[in-house]
Amino acid sequence: MSKNSKTAGWGSALAVSPAKKIRRPFNWRPMMSQLFTVAVTLFGLLVLTFVIGRMMPSDPVRAIVGEDATRETYEMVFRQLGLDRPLWEQFLIYLRDVLTGNFGVSIRTGQPVITDILHVLPATIELATFAILIGATLGVSLGVLAAVNKDRWPDHVIRVFSLMGHSMPIFWTGMIGLLVFYATLGWVGGSGRMADFYIGLVDERTGFLLIDSALAQDWEVFRSALNHLILPASILGYSSSAYITRMTRSFMLDQINQEYITTARVKGLSSRQTIWRHAFLNIRVQLVTIVALAYGSLLEGAVLIETVFAWPGFGQYLTNNMLIGDMNAVMTCVLIVGVIFITLNLISDMLYRIFDPRTR
Amino acid sequence: MTGEHILDVRKLSVGYRSDGGYIDAVRNVSFKLGREKLGIVGESGSGKSTIGRALLRLLPTARITAESIRFEELDLLNISEREMLKVRGRRMSMILQDPKFSLNPIRRVGDQISEAYLTHFKCAKADARAKTIDMLQAVQIRDPERVYDLYPHEVSGGMGQRIMIAMMLLTDPDVVIADEPTSALDVTVRLQVLNILDRLVSERGIGLIMISHDLNLVRNFCDRVLIMYAGQVVESLKAPELSNAQHPYTQGLLAAQPRIGGGRTPLKVLDRRPEWKEPLEVQA
Questions:
Q1: Pairing relation of β-strands B37-42 and B224-229?
Q2: Residue B3 in this model has a pLDDT that exceeds 60
Q3: I need a labelling partner for A292 at 20 to 30 A (CA). Which of A310, A340, B35, B39 fits?
Q4: Can you say whether the dihedral through the CA atoms of A28, A34, A36, A39 is positive or negative?
Q5: Which DSSP helix (H) or strand (E) runs through B125?
Q6: Cross-chain residue pair B88–A266, CB shorter than 8 Å
Q7: Which is it for the CA torsion B80, B83, B85, B91, positive or negative?
Q8: CA B275 → CA A330, A341, B46, B73, B234, distances in Å?
Q9: Cα–Cα distance, A12 to A22 (Å, whole number)
Q10: CB contacts, 8 Å: B139 with chain A
Q11: Residue whose C-alpha is closest to residue A289's, from A242, A350, A237, A336
Q12: With contact defined as beta carbons under 8 Å apart, do B14 and B63 qualify?
């Protein structure tokens, strides 16, 4: 509640109110408390990844030295890793390492984990971003359409369409998609991020292939990358649009039955104007939340679709390392997923404040 | 203007869909409206609000039938939705019950008011803003410049309803339907809002349909009163002659009201007889 709302009552209509223009100073307090919450959550996340690293039934020393190592070698590595020190000291060391950007070395590749991840994460971000753009556009427009035509045929068609998106296994949709659009029709590229003979042609600067090829002004690679991206992104987008459609429909139905919608109609607005200028503005806040969550789970990596499309992404990386017990890599992945969700939450909370004056 | 009546409703019936068929919420209602204040009273479910919404054709799923609904030169029963958009908000508008729900929570109240104007007139946003601020002054809001930029949750109920009145009268309509405009308000604010409405309606020669369940309010505020029961108009009277009501339902309503200084005997219980639901014919 701002101070202004106190003086805005009809009581003030009787008193002479000052002719000052209303000022709305930015309210920093909720922002600060939110940053504090974020800090606490991050700390909790670090504790969690640390515990995962120490509790998992895999022996980090054995993973490094191998099965046949002598007892001396084993103990030397044990001490090198700091495992002989008390737990709290180990945690502080972990904390220091993370804060200085040292996430350890991957057993599988022998490279710093962070180097590997910076290689796979952009591929996933690229895919997830395209997918969420497709999914949100499709889901929101179909949801609005279904709500406006509630219980008429468009509503039923959309329900079936989104139910299919929800229930078809994604690896199956992926294979059928490849079969139809790549093998038969030849409209899109096949698996991988680009056609094989383009690999290595473009310098990797950001890791985002579209951006890198655009920077290099190599439009052939750009086209190839887009061609390879569009099918997996559409399939992921379709599958996440199912949920977005359903939620948009129910948010929209809540709003359509509100009295302010009648007001807008009485003013002479057409039903289209009423929907977009009034009802839709009121569901933005809720939409932001579910789209952010859907985006988060896409960023976490879609292992199945990455496997079907041989997409060298984050989901595959995480799964593979989990299977072979490369704990440094797994811990870092968990940390990154956590940070992604915290960030998305933070962003959607900030958008709340922009979209809804009542939360300011 | 054709004749002295702005609105002429003949045998209006409104049916809501209910499993299988339609159930008539309004049956054969006829009335004429000049530049006057017409009250429609009745208990909950008697169909009074449905009449208002049917006139503005805001009931997409309902079945509306009538012999004719003439509004000035228009036949409201048969014009297209496109033409209806030019009527709504421009020539006929409606004040809704509770500003807490009837204003869009996330848009500035001033913008919501000027939208009513911008929908029907081509003009610069700044001109619409100026118009709105004049109108806010007309509904006795002090410091309208400041109020323009407030959000609905920052204004009180009384102010919200004055904002609603400003929004609905800004385009100078010929007919305004007020659907329980003061029911959601504090008793102390009620009179103030009614006075503002009364003054503006009289000044501008607007025909007002006042829908209410408050018999005393309608008696004091309106020129004529229709009394509705179970979807029908059971009686039509001039407001001062309300105490001479003939219909037993109206008499029952009047008798069920407490009086200051009256006896402390229990009030009469309102009688509802099934035969009043039978079709009847009242010309207003």
A1: parallel
A2: no
A3: A310
A4: negative
A5: helix B125-138
A6: yes
A7: negative
A8: 80, 67, 15, 38, 12
A9: 14
A10: none
A11: A350
A12: yes
Instruction: Give the residue, B247 or B173, on which the prediction is more confident.
Output: B173
Radius of gyration of chain B (CA): 20
Nearest-neighbour CA in chain B from A270: distance (Å)? 7
Please report which helix (H) or strand (E) contains residue A48, including its range. Answer: helix A29-55
What is the structure's pLDDT at A300? Answer: 81
pLDDT of residue A157: 96
- HEC profile of B42-83: ECCCCCHHHHHHHHCCCCCCCEEECCEEEECCEECCCCCHHH
Which of A63-67, B17-21, B27-31 is predicted most confidently?
B27-31
The CA distance from B117 to the nearest CA of chain A, in Å, is 8
User: Which tens digit of pLDDT belongs to each residue from B189-232?
Assistant: 888 888 888 888 888 889 999 999 888 888 888 999 999 988 88
Residue-averaged pLDDT of chain B: 87
User: Do B13 and B232 form a contact (C-beta atoms < 8 A)?
Assistant: no
pLDDT for residue A7 = 40
Give the residue from chain A lying closest to B142, CA to CA.
A13
- The residue of chain A with its CA nearest to that of B81 is A270
Helix axes A314-324, A327-355, angle to 10 degrees: 140
Other CB atoms within 10 Å distance of the CB of residue A152: 10
Provide, as residue numbers in chain B, all residues whose Cβ is less than 8 Å from the Cβ of A260: 101-105
By C-alpha distance, the chain B residue nearest A255 is: B104
Q: Which residues on B lie below 8 Å from A2 (Cβ)?
A: 154
Task: Provide, as residue numbers in chain B, all residues whose Cβ is less than 8 Å from the Cβ of A12.
Answer: 142
Q: How far apart are CA A14 and CA B189, in angstroms?
A: 12
Is the CB of B142 less than 8 angstroms away from the CB of A11? no
Question: Do A259 and B142 lie within an 8 Å CB cutoff?
Answer: no
The confidence score (pLDDT) of residue A25 equals 66
Q: What integer pLDDT is reported at residue B118 of this predicted model? A: 93
Q: Side chain identity at B65, as an amino acid letter?
A: T
Model pLDDT for residues B90-124, shown as the tens digit of each residue: 999 999 989 889 999 999 999 999 999 999 999 99
CB count in 10 Å sphere of residue A113: 25
| Interface touch B149/A12, C-beta < 8 Å | no
Residue of B nearest to A5 (CA): B154
User: Touching check for A227 and chain B: CB below 8 Å?
Assistant: no
Task: Count CB atoms within 10 A of the CB of residue A110.
Answer: 7
Here the tokens at position A119 are 């290689």
Name the stretches of chain A with pLDDT < 50. 1-20
Please give the residue of chain B at the shortest CA–CA distance from A264.
B116
Q: How many CA atoms lie within 13 A of B245 on its CB side?
A: 21
Q: In sequence order, what are the residues at sequence separation of 6 or more whose Cβ sits closer than 8 angstroms to the Cβ of residue A3?
A: none
CA angle (A266, A272, A278) in 5-degree steps: 65
Q: Name every residue whose Cβ is closer than 8 Å to that of residue A171 and which is 6 or more positions away in sequence.
A: A304, A305, A307, A308
Report the 3 state secondary structure along A146-208.
HHHCCCCHHHHHHHHHHHHHHHCCHHHHHHHHHHHHHHHCCCCCCCCCCCHHHCCCCCCCCCC
ipTM of predicted complex: 0.88
Please report, for residues A34, A44, A45, A335, A344, the alpha-carbon distance to residue A41 in angstroms, rounded to integers and kept in the order given: 10, 5, 6, 11, 13
Which tokens is A65 given?
């030295």
Mutate one of A3, A266, A351 to test the B interface: name it (highest B CB count within 10 A): A266
